Amino acid sequence: QVQLVESGGGLVQAGGSLRLSCAASRLTFSRYCLGWFRQAPGKEREFVATISRSGNAVYYADSVKGRFTISRDNAKNTMYLQMNSLKPEDTAVYYCAAGATVQTLGVMMTSGEYDYWGQGTQVTVSS
Questions:
Q1: Letter string b/e over residues 8-24, b meaning 16 or more CB atoms within 10 A of that residue's CB
Q2: Residue 60 · residue 72 · CB < 8 Å
Q3: Higher pLDDT, 104 or 97
Q4: Nearest C-alpha neighbor of 37 from the set 100, 126, 106, 116
């Protein structure tokens, strides 16, 4: 059974940084496009960032562009989200996701494109 496990969430003050990790098991990691989504209380899940199989293509939501950086290490079956200059509105449960694709530079911005999801990690940014 495929597993995606997020870690690295926590409580941080506005302006601070966190680094989320997503460790994958039981899948051929390099064959999957990966993404981060988040869901705040009372809101729908929203796209944050995505990275292609090769890691050479990335795309960000406008709300995090310039502050967040997505990356992956295919040798370690792990994806990361470096979050800097955090704001209270970044408070949410963050989910990682994996979507199978044959395109090495393909990215996915919609949740329906993904096949597997993690259980989420809470990020809380205090003002």
A1: bbeebeeeeebebbbbb
A2: no
A3: 97
A4: 116
First to last CA, the chain: 40
Sequence-distant (≥ 6) Cβ neighbours of residue 84 within 8 angstroms? 17, 67, 68, 69
Question: Pairing between strand 121-126 and 10-13?
Answer: parallel
| Res 69: pLDDT | 98
Give the dihedral sign, CA 90/33/75/78.
Answer: positive
pLDDT band at 59 (very low <50, low <70, confident <90, very high): very high
pLDDT tens-digit profile of 17-44? 999 999 999 999 999 999 999 999 999 9
Burial class (CB in 10 A: 0-12, 13-18, 19+), 96: buried
